[in-house]
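Page 37, top half.
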Amino acid sequence: MNWSLFFAVASPAIFAFMNVFDTFIIKKKVKHVLGFVVVSAVTNVLLGVVLALFLDWRQYAISDYLFPILAGAVIGIQLCFYYVILHKHDSSHAIGLIYCYPIIVALLSFLFIGEKLSLLGYIGMVITLIGVLLLSVRIKKLKITLAIWSLGIVIIATALNEFFIKIAISNINGWNGTAIGSIVMGLFVIPLLLKKDIRKGFYSEFKNVKLTFVSEMLTLAGILTLYLAVIDLPVTIVSVISSVQPLFVLFFEWMAFSFGIKIVKDVRWRHKLFAIVLIILGIMLLYFSDIV
């Protein structure tokens, strides 16, 4: 059995399950979203510290920590808006739209490290944008308020995170980078406690700390399987496979709905499926252009 291929498929599936699980928490268990975000941040710090205690740090210079810190910082920013978006939208809508971020990664790579796209890559970009447009139109028809600016922040933060990790991985081990990122991500969010209403929300939401541990353990599992996947597979191939995450999200939403767990507003799966498939196809073409 090709274990690297198994892990490459497992990673987006785990992340997708985490997305739907987070949606369930936010819509069914949480009353104060930003208070819960801080609970999640504290959990990330604790998990990062525990992981760091089992790792060797002696071979690294201080400069090696720069990009893992930046990656953790932008995800810390993303964390606040991520939960707010899930509170208002179906996870398939949110993740489907967020997954256009590889276009930004491609543009950053073109501008700063000289990576160029082929014609196939540009075709992939166009198809992805069409899928995003169709998904946006679907959300508008449902009269769901879409906070474009907050969604934009999540998309840009996700793109910057992947871009910083791409640079960081040449200087630091993935395990060490993950530990740094987890700690910094949490530390970047904890200052929200300076606001009195968020502090009250944090105290009231601390009862859900067990749920945050499940969610963040899923995050660590997703990252771990991603690193295991790239041991024997080119990272470009792994990225192509990872683009199916929105499809996994849609599947888990359907499963939850089938079991009577109502966490979605849009139950017309075919409308979302077509747009998401276009996004996935576009991302695959974008990455495949690097292979050919």
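Page 37, bottom half:
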Amino acid sequence: MSKKQKKVVNLKQDVQNYMSRVSEEHVFWCHDGRILKDMKDLAEALATMSDETFAYHSNTEKKDFSNWVRDVIGDVKLADDLGSALSRTQAATIVASRITTLAK
């Protein structure tokens, strides 16, 4: 297998890992009671949660969504982008866009 073919295989594995459900011990327990199990759950939650719930998890002192994506899902790019999101709607757009990109 060539170096280029290995890169493609590794990239496909990364995408598959990013999009799959996490194990039960690594789910994200949201302040509003939701349990997030994958990136799609995160996108749906961000699109519909209250701004107060978003602010509880993402503020100057903590970046829960970004940390979960980095530490559990493993998508460093998305984690970095989420860490700089200033609002719930911006975060929802970032996650939805990443899902669309990964699905291609």
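Margin note: The longest strand covers residues 28-29.
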